[in-house]
Design goal:
heterodimer, A: alpha/beta, Translation Initiation Factor IF3, 4-stranded mixed sheet, B: alpha/beta, Rossmann fold, Helicase, Ruva Protein, domain 3, 6-stranded mixed sheet, 5-stranded parallel sheet, 21 helices
């Protein structure tokens, strides 16, 4: 039994997800305390509860506590069983975060699983499903894991109601990821998604103007896409930068009361921040890659300065009996994360 | 435990069309859309006219909160703003609903529905007909968070709120302090009694019975309970006090229940009576055991029906008073002896508080002594001080087993008054105390207490009793007490001469008693009818 203080580091939901993911993989029970102590609404939210319950479901494990509002939970995993599962997150909570909790365990079994998730697909503070498909999945594949993602319906917060399916193939053996140089950027494109938005075209045009100006991209690099299959209204900007070694993505969400220009500026700023250094891995991707890297037990990647989120994540991983992640400076403004 | 929300469909607030509806705050949907609260079941009260809206809301909730099961309850009130109709309808609903508070938590959503519906929801939650907490949803101020907004749960169990609980504790303390006349009493039993009395007094309109030995402070306490109720705006009428030992015959009836002009000889005007004087207030009947059986029957009816007939009247009058009763007798014994109605006892014996005598509260003698000293100073208008030796000596005696305190606080009060009056220059010294101790011991060495003797004599003879020698006074008082407890003169004689009569061949108890009374210009009738001469 490993006891994890949820108030450690930035004290958010990532602590729960990483702990439960590793608990599933290592078969080690975990006791979580002070869950999300650092947040304005402390305790388990609906998406965290779904993640905990999903972990219990796929492993026939037991969950004690961990109900919505609880500040502690005890999770004991059983044996992970591949198969077809469906999980729903109420209140348009992020389905991608639920998926990430159970993904590593499902990679390490001997049969294919399909996971159907419903709820939010595009939530602030969470990677959108496009990011999983376009950025994370290709890198995972380079590490030996294969997932396929199919989006059936978009679910923008706050309405949610999205649905997507992930097929997780068994990972035969981990491959070593070496991601040190970005190489040349050869493709830049931005996709502006709009759904059920009155005057959505105009909003998208205003966003396009700002993107083009601030990123110095061409008009044709920015495409506007109407999302027909969405319950509620939504607006998301996805800025993709493809280089020789990696595809990265900056994301910004339109929200009521936030001007279109501000949304576009936020998206552009993420891209600019990524391009200020030569590291191939951006801030959020670094966070995503840590768990697979530690499970692989080999490999390394280079990123900018690690966020507090990322270092908290590393601290949680270090509590389990897995290959420890190490961090070293790599150039002036970049760091290397590696195992070994 | 699963959360079950109960609420009205908001025919205005919950409305919304097109995808845009998701950006609008719709309370019923928002209730199920909170990221830190799961509503497992929603009992949605819907006017049949709003069925279409209800269906749309059910669909939206299914999307946003797959865990929530929604049940639609057709809820028809012709006018949703009619308080009485609304209350009845929701009350009926609540009574029919199979609440299981042991296995489910209930949240009453008060954001939707007419204001009347909200008020009724609140009232039924407060009375626990809806056994849950209130939940209120609201949009956040910043427009970007229009939906789903926020929510607040309001638990009407006020004890759960520290600051409110402190406030109540303070109020209780004030109430208790008032009941204790601000005296910091230390006797645990007494303090417990006051604590209970404070709670009961403020919650009941039923009779309160104060028992305990004479001088234990029943009358003062009754007055203070009234003061407390008055301070908390629970009474609108007066505090009316009467010692039942001073009543007898028709004057008893008319004093209590009033009379009409011409009801009996001498009734030249209408009299309202004390029951009506206490309308909206408190009637304190001290020594209720002394009340005649006829008056007891009338009183019982007045208590139960709030109505009674004034003497000589054929029109009933009403009075809503709270009865406080005092007695030093054991009313159960009085019932057994046929002197007190069992049904009346049952009616007034609901809240009974037995005041301990001073001897059982030795730890309270010191604070009460200080209180009496202050009162004596107030009364005489002069400062009275005890020097240290005097104070210590008096308290040493007062708390010793030698101090009998037969008349309890009445004795203590008298002792302090005497010392304050007899001392020189407002300073009580050791010798004043020694003299007082001697006086107290002398008083207590006689069987009946001085005040009991005085009271009995005064009732029958008025001020005339002061001309009696102490020697005669004690004897006469005892004789009077026996007479009053007897049916006839012969009966009283048999009791009074119970020993000597066995040695006589011819008994003449009645004659002996009559002659004895005659020595004091008294007759059997005078004694047994008691005296209304006492003010």
């Amino acid at each position: 039994m490993i006891t994890i203080d949820g108030s450690m580091g930035e004290g958010g939901g990532q602590v729960i997800r990483s702990a439960v993911a590793l608990s599933l993989v290592t078969g080690t029970p975990v006791r979580l305390q002070n869950i999300r102590a650092g947040r304005s609404k402390p305790g388990v939210l609906r998406q965290h509860h779904t993640a905990l319950a999903a972990a219990a479901t796929i492993s026939n494990g037991t969950l004690d506590g961990g109900a919505v509002g609880d500040t502690s939970a005890e999770f004991s995993p059983g044996r992970v069983v591949p198969g077809d599962y469906e999980f729903a997150v109420g209140s348009a909570g992020s389905t991608t975060l639920v998926f990430q909790t159970i993904l590593p365990a499902l990679l390490l079994v001997d049969r294919v699983s399909t996971i159907t998730l419903s709820g939010g697909t595009h939530n602030p503070w969470a990677p959108p499903v496009d990011y999983l498909a376009q950025v994370f999945a290709p890198l995972l594949e380079r590490m030996g894991g294969r997932i396929e993602i199919e989006t059936e319906r978009y679910g923008f917060a706050p309405a949610g109601g999205g649905q997507w399916r992930a097929t997780v193939h068994p990972l035969r053996s981990w491959k070593e990821l070496q991601l040190h140089e970005r190489g040349d950027v050869h493709t830049r494109r931005a996709t502006i998604l709009i759904a059920n938005l009155p005057g959505g075209r105009a909003v998208a045009e205003r966003e396009r103007r700002v993107l083009v100006r601030r990123l110095n991209w061409r008009e044709c690099d920015v495409t506007v896409q109407d999302v027909p299959n969405s319950a509620g209204p939504g607006n998301v900007i996805l800025c993709t930068v493809e280089s020789d070694s990696v595809t990265e993505m900056g994301v910004a969400f339109g929200q009521l009361g936030v001007r279109a220009e501000s949304v576009a500026r936020a998206a552009a700023n993420q891209v600019r921040a990524y391009l200020t250094h030569d590291a191939p891995v951006g801030e959020h991707l670094a966070d995503q890659l840590m768990l697979p890297l530690t499970l692989a037990g080999k490999g390394s990647f280079v990123t900018g300065r690690l966020s507090r989120h990322a270092t908290t994540n590393r601290d949680v991983l270090a509590m389990f009996d897995v290959a420890p992640l190490r961090i070293e400076s790599y150039g002036a403004r970049t760091q290397r994360v590696f195992v070994g | 435990m699963p959360n079950v929300a109960i609420g009205f469909l908001g025919t205005t607030l919950d409305r919304g069309a097109g995808a845009e509806r998701w950006t609008r705050w719709r309370p019923t949907v928002a209730l199920c859309q909170q990221d830190d609260l799961v509503i497992d079941r929603l009992e949605l009260l819907v006017s049949p006219r709003a069925q279409t809206l209800a269906d749309a809301i059910v669909e939206d909730i299914a999307l946003i909160s797959p865990e929530t099961k929604v049940r639609i309850w057709p809820f028809e009130v012709p006018d949703m703003w009619d308080f009485e109709a609304m209350y009845s309808a929701l009350h009926d609903w609540a009574r029919a609903y199979p609440f299981q508070p042991e296995v489910e938590d209930y949240l009453v959503h008060i954001t939707t529905g007419t204001h009347v519906a909200q008020i009724v929801s609140f009232l039924l939650t407060e009375t626990r007909h809806l056994p849950g907490k209130l939940i209120q949803t609201s949009p956040t101020k910043r427009v970007r968070d229009a939906a789903p907004g926020r929510y607040d749960i309001i638990d009407l169990d006020l004890d759960r709120y520290d600051k409110i609980a402190q406030r109540f504790a303070r109020e209780h303390q004030e109430g208790e302090s008032l009941l204790k006349s601000g005296i910091a009493t230390r006797n645990a039993a007494f303090n417990h009694l006051i604590e209970q009395l404070e709670r009961v007094a403020l919650r009941t309109r039923d009779p309160i019975l104060l028992t305990g030995p004479t001088g234990a402070g029943k009358s003062q306490l009754a007055q203070r309970i009234y003061d407390l109720k008055s301070k908390r705006r629970q009474v609108t009428g007066e505090f009316v006090e009467l010692n039942c030992a001073t009543l007898h015959g028709t004057s008893a009836m008319s004093a209590l229940f009033g009379h009409v002009k011409g009801a009996f000889t001498g009734a030249t005007t209408d009299r309202r009576g004390l029951l009506r004087a206490a309308d909206g207030g408190v009637l304190f009947l001290d020594e209720i055991g002394e009340l005649g059986l006829d008056e007891q029957a009338m009183l019982l009816r007045a208590l139960e029906e709030k109505r009674f007939l004034p003497f000589g009247s054929d029109r009933e009058v009403t009075s809503r008073f709270q009865l406080f009763a005092g007695t030093h007798k054991d009313l159960v014994d009085e019932v057994a002896a046929g002197r007190f109605r069992e049904d009346l006892l049952a009616r007034i014996n609901l809240w009974t508080f037995r005041l301990p005598g001073l001897k059982d509260r030795t730890e309270d003698i010191a604070p009460n002594f200080e209180y009496e000293v202050e009162r004596a100073a107030e009364r005489t208008g002069e400062r009275v001080t005890f020097n240290r030796a005097a104070r210590e000596r008096f308290l040493e005696f007062a708390t010793s087993p030698q101090a009998e305190w037969r008349a309890n606080f009445r004795d203590l009060n008298a002792a302090v008054v005497r010392m304050a009056t007899l001392c020189r220059g407002g300073r009580v010294v050791r010798t004043d105390v020694e003299e007082e101790i001697a006086r107290l011991e002398r008083n207590w060495s006689c069987a009946p207490t001085e005040s009991d003797v005085e009271q009995t004599l005064a009732e029958v003879m008025g001020a005339r009793f002061r001309d009696l020698d102490r020697f005669d006074a004690v004897q006469l008082a005892e004789v009077m007490a026996v007479c009053r407890a007897s049916q006839t003169l012969a009966d009283a004689g048999r009791r009074l001469f119970a020993v000597s009569r066995t040695k006589k061949r011819i008994t003449n108890d009645s004659d002996r008693l009559r002659k004895y009374l005659l020595k004091f210009d008294l007759t059997w009738d005078q004694i047994t009818r008691s005296a209304a001469t006492r003010p």
